[in-house]
Records
---
Amino acid sequence: MALAFSVARAAEPNTLTAEEQKAGWKLLFDGKSGAGWHSQNKDTFPTKGWVIENGTLRKVAKERGGDLLSEKTYSEFDFKWDWKIAPGGNNGIKYFVTDERGGVGHEYQMLDDATEAEGKDNGVHSTASFYAVLAPFPNKVKALNPAGEWNSSRVYVKGNHVEHWLNGQKVLEYELGSDEVKAGVAKSKFKAVPHFGERVKGHILLTDHNDEATFRSLKILDLSKD
């Protein structure tokens, strides 16, 4: 009975379990307001393009309101969130986003791989990739739920080690500053961005893409020592 209750609690959106609270996890979205988030280059939540409804944060299709940045910054962290996109949708969550670099950061891609050419090859633009730099493992194909259904994702950063997770499976890992990352960055559009591919302290960013995307249960454990 206790186990069943624990599982039910873990599945409830926009909440922290007793174990998460004890460990120091924090909700980045309370399911009711835009507290903790602001538009890029502003200190307020956008007045259009993003809607809070039924315990979710939804990016409105074809209505641009600006990227959403977390108020706090992180250099090492464990970050989890639930998401779903509309058929044909394209979105992403970025990390290591600094004010100096604008909206540029390492991106965990979120894509309708089944219909988008960028996703069908499971390459550097597919879901759970380090966007434009590193492709996910082949097992990611089986882990991804289709457009319109919820997925659970995770980005873990400790020291120079980074992991991307999808629906309970680790689907990518890399080392910041490694030869592999440097080679990927050199072939990408980020090759001229200072310190791209290295660990920096920055915001979490929800992308203001043109397609609909819905988020819930955004939570983070700050592992930073600085």
---
Amino acid sequence: MLSRKKIKYQVTNSGIACSADKAIDQKLLELEALLSSSDFDSEKIRHYKQRINDALELQMNSRQQLEAYRDLDKQEGLSQFEHLDKLITVLSQNPIDTELSKRIIKRGITRKILLCIFSLLIMVIGFAMIIMPAPPAFEIYTVFYFNNNDGVTVMDLVSLLIIFGGIFLFIFNVRQN
């Protein structure tokens, strides 16, 4: 059998190693070890090679398809008819299967849910900052006095800004298509 020298390398994306790339590298090393210890006829080798090529081609085509649609979204200044004409052209050249569209929809829904949860969390933190008593070191300046012992402080105004930021994020996220 062939003894292969295992080459360990790290595929990085902007200096950060991706765990999916590490897993694929590990599986490829395992595949090499299995292939070196197995006896295959040429028909089985062609079959496995075709399956691997099909999987890689599918991955590459799905990214190219999405890029064509993203490029269409970036084009500005087109009339509705021109935009529709370009969309028909892109759809005819890059058909999308149901599996790819389901992944895109799930990713969008997940993103919306996480942003809604994050914006609600921001609002709760803002309300907690107003309701809970702050130490005197945080009570910087009182803007408006209700009585001699209580009033609206700068900390309360910052808390309101945080709450309004959370509300804006929530509404912006829900209204997006």
